[in-house]
Amino acid sequence: MLKNDFVVGYRNIENQKYAGASGKHKPDEAAVDTTNGAGAHNLQIFVLAADGTILTCLPGYWHAQDLEQELALARQLNAVWTNADLSLTDKKAQFTKMQLAHIVEHDRGMASRSHMQGFDLKYEAKKPASDFFYNPRAVNPTTSDTPARNVKTVDIVMHERMASHPFEPYERFDVAQYSDYGKPTYDKHEQYLDASGKIAPGADLASQPMIGNTPKAHPIKTQAKRTGSRVARTTLNQGMRYGIRALMR
């Protein structure tokens, strides 16, 4: 779908003030699934119309099957945005209606993959009126406990927040406010907690330094640059030794 129906690009938000900080992931470590919406400060997936108007935005990481559903909605919203027979007021009204209606179309699998991580939820519970709770007054301010039925999943909150940004230009979109949930920076061990807030099996806490929002906090990037320099020097030496034709084979 991404290859056939969309033009894919990216923008580096490394030095933005709202960009988060998290534990490192080594290049030789296996990639694993996480919950939908995790890492909202580190990554935001925007889907734009051809003129840069926002059709939707998914905060954090998302499973492929759930991303597919959201991309399908974006195509429907694009059809509304490009419909010359509709007024701007009508287009915006349909946008809000479609964003909220999409919530009830989410299946149980998507909902189960969209639970906020335990440490993020505890942080959210300390806010006086977080939109992650149907009734913020039902949250215990001391223990942060609340009935499970009072907690919204990220897929719900995402559409509720998007509903208030109908067909907004990308350059006017407040990314920091939209992706503001959970902890903006994490303690070292929190990257290795499961959804219930318990330390995940096999987590090596002592050897995992933080990666933050400054170049000095990115040892993996620095090492990659050094490795790249060594590869470049090796290639040059081989070229001098064996000739350019040998390298081109």
Describe this structure as you would to a colleague.
The structure is a single chain. The longest helix has 24 residues, at 219-242. α2 packs antiparallel against α3 and α3 (88-103) runs antiparallel to α6. The chain is mainly alpha-helical and 249 residues long. 37% of the residues lie in helices and 6% in strands. The model is unreliable at 188-192, 208-224 and 234-249 (pLDDT under 50). It has a two-stranded antiparallel sheet. It has helices spanning 2-5, 64-81, 88-103, 108-112, 118-125, 154-162, 175-178, 219-242, 244-248; strands at residues 22-23, 44-48, 54-59, 210-211. It folds into two domains: 2-204, no CATH class; 218-249. It is built from nine helices and four strands, in the order αβββααααααβαα.
What number of structural domains do the residues give? 2
- List low-confidence stretches: 188-192, 208-224, 234-249
Write down the secondary-structure element order: HEEEHHHHHHEHH
Estimated structural class: mainly alpha
Distance between the termini: 35 Å
Radius of gyration: 22 Å
Tell the overall outline.
Answer: globular
Mean pLDDT: 80
The biggest sheet, with number of strands, parallel, antiparallel or mixed sense and barrel status, is: 2 strands, antiparallel
Strand order of the largest sheet: 1-4
Number of strands: 4
Strand percentage: 5-15%
Helical percentage: 25-40%
- Enumerate how many helices there are, as a single number: 9
